[in-house]
Design a protein that fits this description.
The chain contains eleven helices and twelve strands. Strand 1 and strand 2 form a beta hairpin. Helix 1 packs parallel to helix 11 and helix 2 packs across helix 3.
């Protein structure tokens, strides 16, 4: 596997090491909870944050358990379906009381996230958070709110309609004379643990995501990843293949993450937390192989020995 030329930045967030050369630290798997869905409505009221507590706790525990069994670290993307700051605060607090894993406070807009993170910062949860996300349109108000909340880690979303190819995305991250880069925005927000999301569009362009992850790590050294699962809804004809074998649903939910993983991804948002029991073991299998390569072929002495290679066999 490739060795990146630039020294790799490794950050620790809520006890999880994120970053490094391929095989050095296992990829962080982030599951989404409390989003809008037609089935299993555990988010009962997106305005108040009312949830089905019993089902929610069970899902959280499932991800905790499978993470411990496989050695793949985990986190929670929380509240993507909520519609008010109050609701976001409520669901984030619920998750924070059930797990020590990293939490990504979500929310469809900055108008929801800004008041919520201020209040969550006041109750001392900021060191558990990875802010999701700072993008090219982030305002001074949002950046100031992040700084005031004392959040030190954030995902920078490398998406812009004029920056599609890997080299262009790199330019979006670092900036130009004409345009402020995402790294500058992160600095203004007080972020010193930076993760780069290479912005998924559709299934074929995951190749671009993977190449950009590779480029970011090789040129800049930052931990990088993506939410490849978001592209699955663009595959309209998948229903035809699912008629042939129902297992294709689960297979595609795993396979969508494997190309970024092989190219050096340090994290992926793998989709609904309901998928955790089959996503984690299969991703763990690949991680074990990558760690073995790092140990035996690249002669790394500092690989993370809590990972899948030392757990699943």
């Amino acid at each position: 596997m490739q060795l990146f030329k630039t020294e790799q930045k490794v950050y620790e967030v809520s006890g999880v090491k994120i970053g490094g050369q391929i095989g050095e630290n296992p990829m962080l798997l982030i599951g989404s909870i409390f989003y809008q869905t037609k089935s299993k409505k555990i988010l009962k009221d997106p305005k108040t944050g009312e949830i089905d507590k019993e089902v929610s706790e069970d899902l959280i525990n499932q991800q905790i358990d499978i993470s411990e069994k496989t050695g793949v670290p985990h986190g929670f993307d929380v509240g993507g379906g909520v519609e008010t700051p109050d609701a976001l605060v409520k669901v984030v607090e619920f998750v924070a009381n059930k797990t020590n894993a990293p939490i990504l406070p979500d929310g469809a807009s900055a108008e929801i996230r800004i008041p919520a993170i201020k209040r969550l910062g006041e109750i001392g949860l900021s060191n558990r958070f990875i802010y999701n996300t700072i993008d090219a349109n982030a305002t001074a108000e949002e950046l100031n709110a992040i700084k005031e909340s004392k959040i030190s880690s954030a995902i920078l979303l490398a998406f812009h309609s004029k920056n599609i190819w890997p080299e262009q995305k790199l330019e979006l991250i670092t900036g130009t004379e004409e345009r402020e880069g995402l790294l500058t925005k992160a600095k203004k927000a007080g972020i010193d643990k930076i993760l780069i999301d290479t912005a998924t569009l559709d299934i074929p362009s995951i190749s671009i995501n993977a190449r950009t992850i590779n480029l970011v790590k090789d040129k800049l050294g930052y931990p990088a990843g993506c939410g490849a699962h978001n592209a699955l809804h663009t595959w309209g004809k998948s229903k035809e293949y699912e008629k042939l074998d129902k297992n294709i649903v689960q297979i595609k939910n795993v396979m969508i993450n494997t190309l970024p993983q092989a190219m050096g991804a340090n994290f992926v948002l793998y989709g609904p937390v309901t998928h955790c029991n089959y996503v984690f073991p299969t991703i763990a299998m690949n991680e074990a192989a990558l760690t073995y390569n790092a140990l035996r072929l690249n002669k790394f002495k500092n690989v993370n020995r809590t990972g899948p290679l030392f757990k699943i066999f």
